[in-house]
């Protein structure tokens, strides 16, 4: 589905690229400082995990002074993948810093260029603490729509943002351009890592060349929920921190079975745009 829009922050060329290729990279869209609230939310969770590991006798040092980029990896360096996966391969906590990020005007301005200014933040957002040596950090080839096959929501746009530089060593995103026009392919549930990721077989990937997308911290990679994409394992000694956020027009299925999304921007009903308090209370609109 191609929607033409002349509002928002993207240039005509960027909108055309997105519509043609099914993805768009916005290098360094957000600054290190603008990512601070999200980083703080992640640190909050890492503190909780360190407390639990310490209380369980699994670690003797909570590594409070280690940098954000390394601490979670080092907390688990002598533990097993199972120990890590008890805390989830990705996180969806309601911590204020995430709402701050999902409401970022820079993100909303970019998405507005693609689907207009009535924007709903889809309930499916993930914080990905991809640590080394945990196979489940690598995500097999898939289409995001395989996670909501019955939802009558189109388009859903993923905005993927790393909180560290993402590269081929720590497992950046890979995408197959122009695959966004494909129908939803039959997927299977990945068994190797026990995570239940939806996955496609090699023979379903077609001949389209893969584009590898290393990007610096704060960049945004926007793609459509039918675009084929994956990410490789983390072979570094750092955490490949990222978030994937999702947006759709307000007249689409809000997918309540995935949780409560929220009205992120509206020119028609600005008074209904959700506040932090609404989001924390799982209200999609302002009370
Ligand atoms: O962050 C990753 O490694 C994979 C992200 C992904 O597959 C997605 O956002 O749909």
Biggest sheet descriptor: 7 strands, antiparallel
Task: Count the beta strands.
Answer: 13
Chain-averaged pLDDT: 95
Oligomer: single chain
Tally the helices: 7
Proportion in β-strands: 15-25%
Taken from the alpha-carbon principal axes, the silhouette is globular
CATH class: Mainly Beta
Instruction: Please compute the radius of gyration using only Cα atoms.
Output: 19 Å
**N- to C-terminal separation?**
33 Å
Structural class: alpha+beta
CATH architecture: Sandwich
Kindly report the name of the CATH homologous superfamily.
q2cbj1_9rhob like domain
Number of domains: 1
Describe the structure.
The protein has helices spanning 12-21, 36-55, 68-75, 81-85, 96-102, 105-115, 276-280; strands at 23-26, 119-121, 126-130, 139-142, 157-162, 173-175, 188-189, 198-199, 211-213, 220-224, 229-231, 240-249, 262-265. The chain has 287 residues and is an alpha+beta fold. The protein has one domain (12-280): q2cbj1_9rhob like domain (Jelly Rolls). Strands 1, 2, 3, 5, 10, 12 and 13 form a 7-stranded antiparallel sheet that branches. Strand 7 and strand 8 form a beta hairpin. The radius of gyration is 19 Å and the shape is globular. 2-oxoglutaric acid (AKG) is lined by residues 128, 130, 139, 144, 158, 160, 229, 231, 242, 244.
């Amino acid at each position: 589905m191609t929607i033409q829009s002349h509002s928002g922050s993207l240039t005509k060329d960027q909108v055309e690229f997105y519509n043609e290729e099914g993805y768009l990279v916005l290098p360094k869209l957000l600054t290190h400082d603008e990512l601070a609230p999200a980083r703080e939310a992640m640190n909050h969770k890492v503190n909780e995990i360190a407390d639990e590991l310490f209380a369980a006798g699994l670690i003797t040092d909570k590594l409070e002074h280690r940098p954000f980029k390394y601490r979670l990896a080092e907390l688990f360096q002598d533990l097993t993948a199972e120990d890590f996966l008890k805390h989830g391969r990705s996180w969806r906590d309601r911590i204020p810093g995430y709402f701050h990020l999902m409401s970022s005007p820079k993100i909303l301005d970019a998405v507005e260029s693609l689907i207009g200014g009535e924007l709903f933040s889809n309930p499916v957002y993930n914080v990905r603490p991809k640590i080394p040596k945990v196979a489940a950090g690598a995500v097999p080839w898939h289409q995001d729509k395989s996670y909501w096959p019955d939802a009558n929501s189109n388009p859903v746009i993923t905005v993927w943002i790393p909180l560290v530089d993402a590269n081929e060593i720590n497992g950046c995103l890979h995408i197959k351009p122009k695959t966004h026009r494909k129908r939803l392919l039959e997927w299977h549930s990945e068994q190797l890592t026990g995570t239940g990721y939806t996955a496609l077989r090699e023979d379903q990937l077609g001949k389209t060349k893969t584009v590898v997308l290393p990007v610096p911290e704060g960049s945004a990679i926007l793609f459509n929920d039918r675009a084929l994409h994956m990410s490789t394992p983390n072979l570094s000694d750092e955490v490949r921190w990222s978030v994937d956020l999702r947006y759709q027009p307000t007249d689409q299925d809000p997918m309540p079975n995935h949780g409560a999304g929220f009205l992120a921007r509206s020119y028609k009903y600005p008074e209904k745009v959700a506040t932090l308090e609404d989001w924390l209370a799982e209200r999609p609109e302002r009370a």
